[in-house]
Design brief:
By secondary structure, the chain is α/β, with parallel strands linked by helices. Helix content is about 45%, strand content about 15%. An 8-stranded mixed sheet has the order 12-14-20-19-15-18-17-16. The termini are far apart.
Length: about 850
Amino acid sequence: MLYFLLILIVLVVVTLLSIYTIKKRGKKVRAKRAALISLLSPEVEKAFADISSYYNFEHYITESERVALASKYSDLFQQIDRILGSKKLENFTAHESFDRFHKAMSDTEGFKRINNDRFIKDQLSNYKNYFDTVLSHPMDEQQREAVVSLEDNVLVISSAGSGKTMTAVCKVRYLIDVQRVAPEKILLITFTNKAAESLSKRLGERKLKCKTFHKLALDIITEATGTRPTITSADFSVQVYNKLLNENQKFYSAVGDYVMWSRYKMKDQFEYNSYQDYITDRKKYGIQSYFNDMDGKPVFCKSDEESQICDFLGSKGISFRYEEKYEYPTADMEYRQYIPDFSIYIPGPDGQTKRIYLEHYAINEAGNCPPWFEAEEKQQYLEGIKWKRRLHKDKETILLETSSAGFHRGDVFSVLTQQLLDQGVKFSDERAQRLSRELMVQEENIINMLSAFNFLMKSRGANIEDIRRRVFHVRDRQIIEEIVTPFVSTYADMAQKANEIDFTDAIIKATEFCNNGHRPDYDYILVDEFQDISVDRYRFLQSLRRQNPLTKLFCIGDDWQSIYRFAGSDMALFKSFSDYFGFTKHCLMETTYRFGEPTISESSKFILANPEQSNKSVQAFSAGKETKLDFLSTKNREDVVSIIKKIADQIPSDKEIILLGRYSFDVNTLNKTSLTVSKNKNGVYVEYGSRHMKFMTVHQSKGLESDYVIMLNCNGGTLGFPADIADSPVLKYVLSAQDTFAFGEERRVFYVGITRARLHTWVLYNRDNPSPFVKEFLEGTVSQKTEGTTSKADLCPKCHNGRRIVCRKGKAVNGNPYTVFICSNRKYGCDYQETVFFNINTPWRKRKK
């Protein structure tokens, strides 16, 4: 019993000691926590006051400010987080400041969003009258929000006719008038001297800097070195090109090949998975070969590879016909009359003309047909090859052969050349004679392509050797090695010998100086027409920005109107703006004050066919605004003149008409007609009676508008719209992945053309050779009108793209009538043909069924 009592006493003592120890320890913890609270209290008060100076409805919190504050008070936040909720803190007189601090720092992004939304709302409300009157017309809501958004980076995605430049002007005025930013702390950058002068005049601020990228770069270099560099002349690329053309025969020959082969835009036929896709592209890119046959007739080949062979024969001055009947009859119960692909005629040794044949087979190295051939069709095709070979052997006629395998290897024409030489074929200078004329017409496009490659390559910090190592496609490698490399090398040599630099070099040098401390100090940088930005200008902009506090950047532009790739512009910088510049607020300006429906919806659908273009919902300022868009077919030059006159006769004399062309030489269509073409210092004009209509290229019309617009020569081909040469596939080696959509640049050029008119645009095209862009509009309209009325039975069962149409009707030997159906896409290569017999002896009910 005593033993248990002693144990109980020990337990009580131990418990009491433990309680005492715990209380003592708790007292120390509380004392320590109280000391910590007392110690942190002034820090919290100071920090909260600092945060409150940013987080208030009169200040727009930028992302750099939010990140800086979060980083600055990260340790303090963690300490408060550990003691938050303790009784001692709750009893502390200043615990509310701890709560507010903790709450503010626990969701900085949320508080920033709430704060900035309220800031914008208050600014729009408080300065409503200011925005109503600061310009000649009241600003719309989207324009106002863009102006009062003061994020580190603001990208305004605008629309054609949405008032980009005036919004930039209002932004500057707001910064000076409302935000009290000193004019000398604002830099406004434009892309042309004319725009810079115009903006400076509108703003009327002597201390405000309004410059082009190039002027700014030259000023920085001059200030840093004490010497202003000499810039190459505007036609320097032309000088380089002509020097090579005149002195380098290999370059001349390679450019000739480039002119001829650049028109081929289709994929390798083995890359198509369906016949429908193949025929769709055939229709899109055209089927007429560059050279005519020996009779001067245009050639419409059944495949892209055959078209290239046709042009090869024509370029060598070889007499040929396409799909001419074989010299011997072959029609029987099983086969139709044999029609070879090409019949080639050469003088024989006895003075008689010798006829040889060339067949091109759609088979690869493994002897397989394209994947879109159906199984039965493949078998028939391969058996047909064997039959043709037997026939020529039996008839002792000469058969030459090429195949898709040769195109894959890249040796199809070298092998064909040797085959023709072995048969005694003589090559002439037909190609040189024709291409010499073509080179003169295509000079601008070729030089633009070479200049674009050179500028893009330099702006990305790449060199030609690096690029050459990445090129594996046979045709691309030939263009890079034989055309681009000589141009780039000669360009650099001539500039160095003249001790000159181009504007891309100037921007690169100015960027280096800025990064090394020769940086002008600005609080705000505004960039107009940002869609034309290039990689070198992007780096230049970044080097101009002060990091603490970060110089704010405001950019405004329309990626749907980015049409200066030949000057180095890269659409990816617009599309992925935040990836390059950091956190960005994106604003939209979707109201156009220029044009209305149906042009808005039709042009938007057209440009958005390129998935890399920004999505916008463009709308007219006035709901009832109408702007018509019509496509008119022509047969010849007389048609074009007649249509222009007819349009002009219908339009009041006080309304303006401008004529647009893809090329400056498009106006030559109107020379020596009843219309008069004249030139003066103000431009090119077309005169009809008392009416003077200005002509300009689409590029020159950028930023302009007119009551009425007539677009000329919207045709297919190398001198059509799109420009095959200007949209060269080799540019993909210096472009970002986001700017390699087929005809992406040319699509934007076409969009600019059809969005210049306030009231009506007419697009004129050759009915036998319309532009692929025109086809998109026409076929889209047709499909919409006929959707739901065309039965599935009317579709071609082979290509599923064209329609079954009646080729001919007749009567069989037994008197039964028949109808032969073919595909409306026959000229594009679809060889569907079906004969349907009508049995007159079948009872009426059965026939109907």
